[in-house]
Amino acid sequence: MKLNFLTILCFGIFLFTSCKNDDSNPNPNIPNLPNPEGLISVQEATAMEEAYKLEFYNILNDVKLNNYPGFEGAGRYVWFDLDEVKQYIAYVERHAAENGYNGNLGLRVYMGAKVQNNSISGNPEPRQTVFFVPTIKGPNDDIDRNILSAERLNLGGAGVPDSVDSNVGISN
Q1: Rounded CA gap, 25 and 4, in Å?
Q2: What PROSITE patterns is this protein classified in (predicted)?
Q3: What is the mean predicted confidence (pLDDT) over 17-39?
Q4: Residues 60 and 103 in one domain
Q5: pLDDT greater than 90 at residue 76
């Protein structure tokens, strides 16, 4: 009887001490990873956006307005669904593993243009966009190289015309 009591007591202590209550990650579906090193402040992003508008945006609008009557304005952002980006990252990791690529994976973002219909006139016109290309940097490589066998991602939506500034939205 004494042996059974000690066994049950030890088992109970084991259960209570081994069940860790980890409140640091309230959603177990979201990986508990450290913040990336490349984060910038809202103020830095706003300054970069203003520099883009000063250096490129107005020039693009001036050039394209004369070539496309009813031109709605150059794009200033491309929106991507977060789940789609996560799926693409998983695709890149799977593709690399299946093809024997070993190294540090990354994504390169290329500027691009594609034809889409003007929402007012219905006429086709070129629109700015971006697309992702997976890259790999091997242990002895100095640069990231594009993975040529992998598909690219471009399912983002550009704002046309775009009146949303990077520092406008919701806050907690």
Answers
A1: 38
A2: PROKAR_LIPOPROTEIN
A3: 71
A4: no
A5: no
